[in-house]
């Protein structure tokens, strides 16, 4: 399961939404795309899913050009793009049945619907008209539609948007499970969500990929600022540290709390100014997008 993006460019009239982006991804795993409003995330996911055509460049799914051979390429892919809207007079079951037929499923459609309904936990309202669904219910139904036929690549545009905290946690767990066997590409505005569910993060800004990195070990870090200079840092509570001008970025040992570390720093003669939890992805994001 793989996706290759080559020199992908999209213009909407005078707006350059994506500018010659390149990326290769192979699964299983989860890639999170972060970026501010208007950065080009949805445009990229729409191009991968062949909802829109590129101005230039190409997307290959398992080496098949999605624009030239959409039917062959898209059988490997399921997608949830933008806020889902359904025929309001159909119920969830009818929508799933309709979508399964469009996807080309012929046999055991009811078994597949049951699998998806259990997976997305929407048994309680499956037979209600979708016109009465809340945003979160629609989101779960759209996720079920994206997973019809068990595709090996799943594209999700802000999959937890509009869900309550319990619903978000449920969908994140589902994504983590899916990405053990599949390639999942999702967009999000939430840095902590990207860190939690993905093993690789891209940051897009002004239509360009500005950051592409395998997620680090996700260990907790502390940022300490200090006055003067430092001669020595010794503490049983510190795993490792980096000194950068008047800041120290510390990775604590598992059993250490911030108090233990600050106490040891002061004992070492460090004139501590402030200490706070540090998020390197957040700092990178802010410096790229501001
Ligand atoms: N159909 C369209 N017609 C004209 N411009 C468009 C269209 N769709 C998107 N754009 C523009 O393309 C750029 C990228 O939009 P896109 O929706 O891909 O951003 P995004 O990163 O998904 O943003 P958000 O986080 O707000 O959803 C924006 O400048 C947007 O205004």
Automatic annotation (TrEMBL):
Residues 3-231 form the ABC transporter domain. It holds the Pfam family ABC_tran. PROSITE patterns: ABC_TRANSPORTER_2 (PS50893). InterPro entries: AAA+_ATPase, ABC_transporter-like_ATP-bd, P-loop_NTPase. The keyword Cell division does not apply. Keywords: ATP-binding, Nucleotide-binding, Transport. Belongs to the ABC transporter superfamily. This is ABC-2 type transport system ATP-binding protein. It comes from Picrophilus torridus (strain ATCC 700027 / DSM 9790 / JCM 10055 / NBRC 100828 / KAW 2/3).
């Amino acid at each position: 399961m793989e996706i290759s993006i080559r020199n992908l460019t999209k213009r909407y009239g005078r707006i350059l939404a994506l500018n010659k982006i390149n990326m290769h991804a192979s699964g299983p795993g989860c890639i999170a795309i972060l970026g501010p409003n208007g950065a080009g995330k949805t445009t990229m996911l729409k191009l991968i899913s062949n909802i829109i055509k590129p101005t230039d460049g190409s997307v290959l799914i398992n080496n098949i050009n999605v624009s030239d051979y959409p039917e062959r390429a898209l059988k490997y892919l399921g997608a949830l793009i933008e806020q889902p809207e359904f025929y309001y007079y159909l119920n969830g079951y009818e929508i799933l049945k309709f979508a399964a037929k469009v996807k080309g499923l012929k046999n055991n459609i009811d078994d597949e619907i049951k699998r998806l309904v259990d997976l997305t936990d929407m048994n309680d309202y499956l037979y209600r008209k979708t016109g009465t669904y809340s945003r979160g219910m629609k989101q779960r139904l759209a996720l079920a539609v994206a997973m019809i036929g068990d595709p090996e690549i799943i594209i999700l545009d802000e999959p937890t948007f509009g869900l309550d905290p319990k619903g978000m946690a449920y969908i994140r767990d589902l994504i983590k499970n899916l990405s053990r066997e599949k390639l999942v590409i999702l967009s999000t505005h939430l840095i902590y969500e990207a860190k939690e569910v993905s093993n690789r993060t891209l940051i897009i800004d002004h239509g360009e990929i500005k950051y592409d990195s395998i997620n680090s070990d996700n260990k907790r870090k502390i940022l300490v600022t200090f006055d003067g200079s430092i001669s020595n840092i010794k503490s049983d509570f510190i795993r490792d540290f980096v000194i950068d001008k008047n800041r120290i970025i510390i990775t604590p040992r598992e059993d250490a709390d911030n108090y233990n570390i600050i106490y040891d720093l002061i004992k070492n003669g460090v004139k501590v100014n402030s200490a706070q939890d540090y998020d390197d992805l957040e700092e990178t994001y802010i410096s790229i997008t501001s």
